[in-house]
Structure formats: structure tokens, C-alpha cells
Amino acid sequence: MKAVRVVRHGDPAEALEVQDVPAPDVGPGEVRIAVSAASLNFGDIARCRGTVASVMGQIPFTLGMDVCGVVDAAGEGADEWVGRRVVAMAKQSLGGLAEFAIAPVTGTFEAPPTLDDVTAAAFTLPFHVGYLALHRRAKLTAGETLLVVGGASAVGTAVIQLGVAAGANVIAIAGGPEKARLCEELGASVIDHTTTGDLFDEVNARTDGRGADVAVDVVGGEQTEVIWTCVAREGRYVPVGFNDDPQSGLTGRPLRKVSMGNISVLGVILGYGELPVDFRRFGLNMFPAEVGRDVHAALLELLASGSVRPVVGRRIAMDEVALALDDHERRKTMGRTVVVISGASEATGVE
What we know:
This protein is α/β, with parallel strands linked by helices. It has two domains: 2-123 and 310-340, Alpha-Beta Complex (Quinone Oxidoreductase, Chain A, domain 1); 125-265, Rossmann fold, CATH 3.40.50.720. The chain has helices at 12-15, 43-49, 117-121, 124-137, 154-165, 177-185, 199-206, 224-229, 256-261, 289-305, 321-329, and strands spanning 2-6, 16-20, 30-39, 61-62, 66-74, 85-89, 100-104, 108-110, 145-149, 169-174, 189-192, 212-217, 231-239, 264-265, 312-316, 336-340. Helix 4 packs across helix 5 and helix 4 (124-137) packs across helix 10 (289-305). The radius of gyration is 19 Å and the shape is globular.
């Protein structure tokens, strides 16, 4: 099978090759998916370079986290999935940019019937993470103000839509007029950080001096503490991504400023399934599988009602991954970049 492989550490153009490798074997509680489309993630850049990312691979390895396709084989306990069109998170968040990928059944879900393969591949991670952040962790309610940092990203566009669907007043921070227009089309008022002098002043002007009840931050990095000052007293800050942090958020921020602001910091990570208790020594404590099923069911209802839809900014071929990741790093992308693997129904432009 063909796969997008990291064969050496370096910039994506140096690190990546499309290679022919054996199809993976399926194990107990796993399915093998004939992949039609798979999404790129910002963390793929760090994986290419061998720097800090949430999940790392040992060279050589195949990139790719979230996929859409049809299950062609199943391990013990997963026979019911054979022949079904699914969206899934690849095993250990790697291996999805290939003609066949392995996924645990706890991270495998019915593909949304209203979405084609390309758009479905853009759905799982952004919307599951967004739903967990807003509803499971922050418990956003109608009438509250939601601040979305990185509003034009894949997760940002999902969070904006979920916030609007929940009846929140959504403010998005984005960079440049094109990204601002996208966020406005999704229902947010927009702060263009490329032309705004002071985020604190701007957010407070839009909230009558109160600040945001909930802030979902896809960016992280040096502006984190500025965003904290934009959160209302007893508000909630949810760190979702760390795209502006070379250490992927692992260096931390001074917690005294959280105490000084009387705000809550609520962590969230996408991952379903029971792990041995020793994994908590490494800080990993995932949601059980039933939470994933509940989240997916709620999202399918929102999709069916037309309240939300994944934003596909670009569709590319396997040999274009390196260039696309370079564009991600230079902040030249919007929404999800989807790699068409084989036989995918097509979606073009921004959905």
C-alpha cells in the first residue's frame, strides 16, 4: 500500500516520502480501514522534525490521525464494523495517511451520512474536541460569551459553530481579512489580531468590561496570559492547542495568574478508552468509550439539523502533504486540509 512516511527528521519537505509498505495487521478490538481521505494536523510538523508533539513516532512511521473510509477487516470483538463506512482516529494517532489504517473500536464511529468522504475526514477531531471542550468541560450555556482563539483553524471553526448552536455570543480571534470573513460567516464577531492593538481592550469593549465567560484557545504560546486577562471573573479557559508554542505546551504557565484572575483552567484531550492506571503517572487520563459514543450521537444530530458543518479549506494528494504542512506553519491555511487517498467522494473549496 502507499503511505506518507516520515523517513528522517527535518522540515516536512526533507522528512516525508510517499512509499510502498505492507498493509498493517489488525489486532483484537481494532479495525482496518480502507482509507478514502485523511486530515492533516498542525502537530504533524513537529512529528516530521522530531520535536515535541502530543504523540511521537519512531522513524520510519506513517503520519495521519483522523480518517474516513470503509472497514475491510476486524480483530476479535470488532466484527460488527466490517463493511461499514466510518470516521476514526488512527491507532496511537499515527498511520492514517495511507491506503489502509488501523483504528481502535473506541475511536471508530459511523461516518456522518450527510457528509461526503472528504468532508467527513475533516469532522472527527475538530468537532469531538470542540464538543468535549464546550459541553463536557466548560459547560457552556446559552447567553454566555465564548471567545475562540484561532477561529479560522479547523478546531476553531468547529468551536465557533458549536458555540453558535448552543446560543452563545461568539467572539473569534483570527488573522487577516480572509480568515475574519470566514469566522463572520460562521456566526462570530471577529477581532483581527493583525490590526488590533490590544486584545484585552478589544474583548472588554465587546463584553461591557466583563470579559468572556469561556475562552477556547487553539493557539497557546506567549499570548496565553493575555487571553487569561480577557476571561471574566469565575470564567473558564480551555487550552485545546499549542500551535504557537515550540514545546507544545509542555513548559507550562505561571498558575499564580490563574489565582489572581479567579478563573478556572479546564484541560481537554480527545481520546476514548480505558487505560491502565499507571498511564496516569504520565498525565494521561482519557474519557471512557461511552463518552465518545454520546458525543458522536449529539454531533450527528447537529449535522442533520444543519447547525454545524466541517470547513474544508483545501483538498490535496498524498505527494502534496509536505507543501501543505509548510503552509500550515506559515498560517496560510483555513479549516481542515484533507488528503485524498483513494476513491473519495469529492468536496472542493471551503465547505
